């Protein structure tokens, strides 16, 4: 899933074209983008202006409110697209299809080792013309992963069907019952195909739960395991030698030039044993490498077994690509850090930047974070999604991008991070199912544990009964969970070295942190990331964290948290220089006391759809350099006091569709260098003072706004008007509930 986000405009005359998508737009915005559209003509008109171009790109087929495009975006459980280059699966695809379509076959398990192409085969099947002719839009594709949440999976099915409210279930049984009723009422007698991708051993009971007594209903399961209790299993074969050579050449010799001895190529391909993932990863790692590296690879494999004899052997083979990072310690550590996040979940690049700035002294702007991720992506060790392919914003290289990782590569990262004694590890990755803590975590013989990076992932059965663990030297703490009510670990109080805290709820609804605010001992905390959390209040001692430099709140409920004014503004976040608030749909206004945080350099308010006004005191933030108000669609105006922001270098007003004028003294922003103004559809003129913006270098906008700026080009020597037609990638939407 690679990424870019929202922007576009068009005329009200297109409203009729979009009205028939209104119902699907409602769920699209309400859940995925946090825009709660009302059903009146004015709001639909705004939706048209902002999103008509995007919807033209996104929707290539539509029916039942579900869509698929060439980038593979498919909503919550629609069918993903297929990779651009696939070899060796045609014959097996026909065999699998024949098995699935047999009468009396309700379940087919597609089984093969990790990295063998199971998911690719499932995507090919779902995109097959014959299959689409039979099932139409009644194909539901779900990624299961290791710790499946049945209720969340059923909610995603509801989410993907037109005009369906997403219920909150009382139990798993209730979820299945309502799913059956949904299919009977909405689909009727039409055939249904449910794909459960990446089923793990121990979760196969989920298959029986999803097996519904509905005529024409079938389930396709992909798994690296074999489930003997299910009669119909198709075992996906490795690629034959010819297809393996074709795939390997595609990645190792992309420019068509082979300067390596043929026998070395043959030996490397044989060593990959027909594994598509191994061929891809190893091929990319050897691309344009000298022959000595090929010889070294062959020698290292010469004593080994077949690549898929065991998972450990497979990992050791794939480790070749990691060994290629020797001598590039920061890059290798960046790869290993990706294992800190849950399987099959998107990882915001901005969150990685927060970690890596503190761990590896990377730049605040995120340029090197993105460079390292590009390098890992080029080596096929991560999938990097750039949301805005057209983005020319060097102010924040990371802002909306994210990464994802094949589960086998994540296992490699976890495996390598788990080498050596627990006490001597750099990072510790803890995955807790239910309340079963690993024995070594609570074993006094291992206490204290002196790791710098700690990740704890819990499932929806966890009851927050934390053990008394001693991990005092943690610098970065990552908490991943799914429950509705979550208790922060008590042992955080002893983490005096903690500088980065990332708290992410991967559940369907926002979670309550039962013991939030944070422990008062976290005096060294510099960066706080909260995602999908309900924040009722911010206690005074939190506001006085003297070293806090950045706070990010993503898809959080925070409206009431800022209502209480601190007693002493001078002691409030004395070193805070960045506030980042995105997709917080209950934020109506920014309180005036925030304008007393005089050290602030960056305020980023993105996609806060209910934000109506900014405080008149905004001009007091005399050190502010960045003000981003992207897609704050209800924001009416900028306060006149903005003219006092003499240090402001970057202003983003993209998709502020209700803003019909700019401050008369906008020209007083003597340091302004970049303005983004795509989608400012209500704006019909610029204040004459803009001719005084002598430092303005770039206006990034659409054709309508470019026309307004053309008049002032002769007055502004440095000005470049950049007209963009935004290419927004929404692949990430089906990975995270809002």
From TrEMBL:
One of its GO terms (biological process) is defense response. It holds the Pfam family NB-ARC. InterPro entries: Apaf_helical (IPR042197), LRR_dom_sf (IPR032675), NB-ARC (IPR002182), P-loop_NTPase (IPR027417), Powdery_mildew-R_dom (IPR008808), WH-like_DNA-bd_sf (IPR036388). Residues 1-67 form the RPW8 domain. Gene3D superfamilies: Helical domain of apoptotic protease-activating factors, P-loop containing nucleotide triphosphate hydrolases, Ribonuclease Inhibitor, Winged helix-like DNA-binding domain superfamily/Winged helix DNA-binding domain. The keyword Repeat applies. Keywords: Leucine-rich repeat, Plant defense, Repeat. GO terms for molecular function: ADP binding. Transmembrane segments: none annotated. Belongs to the disease resistance NB-LRR family. This is Probable disease resistance At5g66900. The lineage of its organism: Eukaryota, Viridiplantae, Streptophyta, Embryophyta, Tracheophyta.
């Amino acid at each position: 899933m690679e990424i870019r986000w929202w922007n576009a405009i068009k005329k009200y005359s297109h409203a009729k074209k979009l009205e028939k998508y209104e119902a699907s737009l409602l769920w699209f915005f309400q859940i995925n983008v946090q825009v709660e559209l009302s059903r009146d003509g004015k709001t639909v008109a705004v939706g048209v202006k902002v999103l008509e171009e995007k919807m033209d790109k996104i929707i290539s087929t539509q029916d039942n409110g579900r869509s698929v495009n060439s980038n593979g975006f498919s909503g919550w459980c629609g069918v993903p697209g297929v990779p651009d280059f696939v070899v060796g699966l045609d014959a097996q695809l026909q065999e699998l299809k024949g098995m699935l379509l047999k009468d009396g076959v309700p379940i087919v398990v597609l089984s093969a080792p990790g990295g063998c192409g199971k998911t690719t085969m499932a995507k090919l099947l779902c995109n097959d013309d014959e299959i689409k002719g039979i099932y139409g839009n009644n194909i539901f594709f779900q990624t299961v992963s290791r710790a499946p949440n049945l209720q969340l999976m059923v909610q995603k099915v509801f989410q993907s069907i037109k005009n369906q409210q997403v219920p909150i279930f009382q139990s798993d049984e209730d979820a299945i019952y309502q799913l059956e009723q949904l299919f009977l009422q909405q689909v009727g007698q039409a055939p249904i195909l449910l794909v459960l991708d990446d089923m793990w051993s121990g979760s196969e009971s989920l298959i029986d739960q999803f097996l519904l007594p509905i005529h024409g209903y079938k389930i396709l399961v992909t798994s690296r395991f074999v489930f003997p209790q299910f009669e119909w299993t198709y075992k996906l074969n490795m690629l034959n030698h010819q297809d393996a050579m074709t795939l390997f050449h595609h990645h190792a010799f992309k420019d068509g030039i082979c300067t390596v001895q043929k026998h070395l190529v043959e030996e490397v391909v044989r060593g990959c044993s027909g594994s598509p993932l191994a061929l891809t990863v190893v091929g990319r790692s050897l691309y344009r490498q000298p022959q000595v590296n090929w010889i070294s690879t062959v020698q290292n494999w010469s004593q080994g077994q077949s690549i898929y004899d065991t998972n450990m052997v497979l990992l050791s083979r794939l480790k070749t690509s990691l060994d290629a990072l020797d001598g590039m310690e920061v890059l290798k550590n960046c790869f290993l850090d990706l294992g800190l996040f849950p399987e099959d979940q998107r990882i915001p690049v901005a969150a990685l930047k927060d970690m890596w700035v503190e761990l590896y002294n990377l730049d605040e702007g995120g340029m090197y974070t993105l460079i390292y991720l590009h390098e890992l992506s080029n080596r096929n060790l991560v999938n990097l999604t750039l949301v805005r392919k057209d983005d020319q914003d060097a102010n924040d290289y990371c802002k909306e991008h994210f990464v994802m990782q094949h589960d086998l590569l994540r296992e490699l990262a976890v495996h390598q991070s788990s080498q050596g004694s627990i006490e001597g590890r750099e990072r510790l990755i803890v995955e807790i199912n239910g309340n079963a803590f690993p024995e070594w975590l609570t074993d006094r013989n291992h206490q204290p544990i002196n790791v710098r990076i700690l990740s704890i992932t819990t499932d929806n059965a966890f009851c927050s009964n934390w053990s008394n663990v001693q991990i005092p030297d943690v610098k970065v703490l990552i908490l991943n969970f799914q429950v509705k009510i979550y208790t922060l670990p008590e042992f955080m109080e002893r983490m005096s070295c903690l500088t980065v805290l990332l708290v992410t709820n991967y559940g369907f609804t926002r979670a309550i942190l039962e013991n939030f605010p944070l422990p008062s001992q976290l005096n060294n905390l510099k960066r706080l990331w909260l995602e999908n959390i309900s924040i009722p209040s911010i206690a005074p001692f939190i506001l006085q964290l003297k070293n806090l430099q950045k706070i990010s709140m993503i898809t959080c409920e925070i409206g009431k948290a800022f209502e209480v004014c601190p007693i002493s503004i001078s002691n409030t976040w004395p070193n805070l220089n960045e506030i980042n608030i995105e997709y917080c749909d209950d934020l109506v206004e920014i309180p005036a006391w925030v304008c007393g945080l005089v050290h602030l350099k960056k305020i980023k308010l993105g996609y806060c759809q209910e934000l109506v006004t900014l405080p008149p005191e905004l001009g007091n933030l005399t050190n502010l350099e960045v003000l981003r108000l992207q897609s704050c669609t209800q924001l009416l105006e900028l306060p006149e006091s903005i003219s006092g922001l003499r240090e402001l270098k970057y202003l983003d007003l993209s998709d502020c569709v209700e803003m019909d004028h700019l401050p008369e003294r906008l020209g007083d922003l003597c340091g302004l260098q970049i303005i983004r103004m795509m989608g400012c559809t209500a704006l019909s003129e610029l204040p004459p003072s803009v001719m005084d913006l002598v430092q303005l270098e770039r206006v990034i906008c659409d054709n309508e706004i470019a026309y307004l700026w053309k008049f002032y080009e002769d007055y502004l020597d440095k000005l470049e008007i950049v007209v963009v037609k935004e290419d927004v990638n929404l692949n990430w939407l089906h990975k995270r509930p809002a």
